[in-house]
Amino acid sequence: MRSLTVRLSAAAAVLSLAPAMVPTLAHAAAPAPDVAWDLVRDLTTQVGPRPAGSPAEARAREWAAARLKQLGFQNVAIEPFTMRAYRRGIDKAELVGFAAQPLAITALGYSGATPEAGITAPLVYFPSLAALEAAPDGSLAGKIAFIDHAMAPTQDGSGYGPYGNVRRQGPGVAVAKGALAVVIRSVGTDKHRNPHTGVISWANGVKPIPAGAVSNPDADQLERLAATGQPLKLHLTLTGQIIDNAPSGNVVGELPGRDPSLPPVLVACHLDSWDLGTGAIDDGAGCAIVAGAALGAQTSGPDGGKPLRTIRVLFAGSEEVGGFGGEAYAQKHGKEPHALAMESDFGADRVWRVITNFAPSADAVKARLVAALNPLGVVPGDGTANGGEDVGAIIAAQKLPVVDLNQDGTHYFDLHHTPDDTLDKIDPATLAQNVAAWQSTLAIVANEPGPIAAR
Amino acid sequence: MRSLTVRLSAAAAVLSLAPAMVPTLAHAAAPAPDVAWDLVRDLTTQVGPRPAGSPAEARAREWAAARLKQLGFQNVAIEPFTMRAYRRGIDKAELVGFAAQPLAITALGYSGATPEAGITAPLVYFPSLAALEAAPDGSLAGKIAFIDHAMAPTQDGSGYGPYGNVRRQGPGVAVAKGALAVVIRSVGTDKHRNPHTGVISWANGVKPIPAGAVSNPDADQLERLAATGQPLKLHLTLTGQIIDNAPSGNVVGELPGRDPSLPPVLVACHLDSWDLGTGAIDDGAGCAIVAGAALGAQTSGPDGGKPLRTIRVLFAGSEEVGGFGGEAYAQKHGKEPHALAMESDFGADRVWRVITNFAPSADAVKARLVAALNPLGVVPGDGTANGGEDVGAIIAAQKLPVVDLNQDGTHYFDLHHTPDDTLDKIDPATLAQNVAAWQSTLAIVANEPGPIAAR
Predict the structure, then answer these.
(1) Where is the signal peptide (chains A, B) (predicted)?
(2) Is ipTM > 0.95 here?
(3) Which of A121, A268, A354, B328 has a C-alpha 20 to 30 A away from that of B187?
């Protein structure tokens, strides 16, 4: 902790963060790390949960546009679009008969609905998605499938691919086997009674069945009960609804560079959150980091002035249910050239690695990034940067260069998509390290005169 | 961890735990630590939550009586009584207007009920119980009081006295000030969205008002929102009911000593749990520890035989809502002499301290206890042992000697009375240390021929 503080102070000195040197900003007195903290604090406290397509998400857009203006951003705009939303109803599950007891459950996004009174059916335990896939088609008629799995924490979050498929693909597999409904072990690494929600990827034309996730302790319970060999029966109530053409929108704002005719650097996060928590790590922190760093980088030009290029901030809407905001941004802004794109959407733990998709011709820029991030404890990685859901569409459309500042994900899936995603889970020191890493990065890429080639 | 294992092995050797030496027990092959783990695993898994006065508590009694018989206990009996129960209804709270958002809430035991549609009223923030006490009588008419506090973890659990009063006494103070309802910060030390329930001590004649507890992150949210100065308004729905003359009961069982005419040693726990979790640390672990240790002590007599005195196990009912089981035990068994009483009801973390209420004439016995517990990392303390809720009445009636084996409570109030009180929170290694400490203690007190005087 102490050594991190020392490093941050050193970085702040190098980057000339002294407030007196940011005279053009309305809140010039607040150093960048405090801007970030205040932003995520107020968004999560005063708006709270902001599910995609909901009135709360609309309040978040109004709040964000007002705050960005207050912070000195220009060309601030709300860019509306419509999307398919999921509105939670009653979520309830209880074993009946043997080991009768309630289970902590959440509906998954785009779940089908049970009747108000729920359904009662045998629960069939599958230790993995592969085990369910191996079941004969039609063998689950009139039954509820339970899919277990063995997700464990990883620093780079790579467990979310394979184990996340239990949630994304598992419900569709259950439909193929004829199941009445499906329950999964939460895609998460904690041991709290807070189930993890998240979206289902139904194939086109599939009629959704009720689909929920129980917390890890409840899944442990089901695993132990299945091992007794006694038949299990579940009473399940999930009454949420799928809503077409729900109103959503993106919020954009700019800090114009010395040469506004040059393509801007795009930095993104998403403004919506799942409804269970207040969206602190997913992704209030991301919005706080990109906005705080964009402001912090305003002294990165020659003589502590503005950078060469405009930095455009995108607070995307409706990321959680399928990246609608990123798609809408690419549709609206696809004809404007961009210099580079970045996204922050993996919590608020420290940046530990930097990767890019730069072509060899940009090796020198990459080397400067690596050198600038080294004092913050960031190492270069071998992978290929891809941005993320909010910038993926514009990156693909324009083959943009990308820098990924990978955050430590060891604890991310303890909180991800749960009621526990709240402000207290953010460590102000690691949030400040993120802002410093982003600011160091923006100081380089927003002052780069020539285009950076992507590979 | 490793050194603990070494110590336990040493203790086991000293206490002659070798299974072959327990020939009279049905499950002689299972060493005592496994008996304890299996007991808490199966109680929390197969019975699950077992609130006082509920059908689930009745199932727990049947389960416990059958398991005790299976383990070789004799004179196993269910001793019924009736009590005042609280049956949870719908628990729901949401801010409306400014910062509209749901809050994670639980009703407190013996809360008054709102109408099914809930109530909506201004929420008035009080930073402490003392601040509420200082409000003028009648000043909260038509309003909901929120009582904050600053509980922090302590090893000996001493925060539960003063901060627990916010829950026990706070609702009554709110009534005196004319409040329509009351919400408190959970009496707990964690940062999860799992509110802590627990019982209210209404004074005689007071008409209960709706009373709930929000989780710590929600209380943090209310604290921040109150600091904005904006008026807050809460929509509160708590529909649980108070049920008079609900059926409950104790379960008792004995392991007869070499001289069954001598007064028995009483070891107790409680079988009921709050409904939110599965009652693993509160108090499935306690029942597992006392039963496991009683069995383990069956080789503590001369030549590895039975101890001198009978050990009687009491699995009390209805502790959580006011110690009804302990009272019922004292009424039924108050005329039978007892040698000594002990209770385990503070989780499953390691025993760190031993205290007694022995008179100076029993200093030698106490010294032997201290010496026996020393290899397990247990230190002698200066306080006076008092047993607890399940043995308090019989101790008071008979002025019994008591040994308290204090468990480390640093993390206890992270889980206490929450949905998170589940099996995964028990470390088998510390559970085994508890069993070893109890077994060492019983090996001494159940082989003591003369009475031990209490001070």
Answers:
(1) 1-28
(2) no
(3) B328
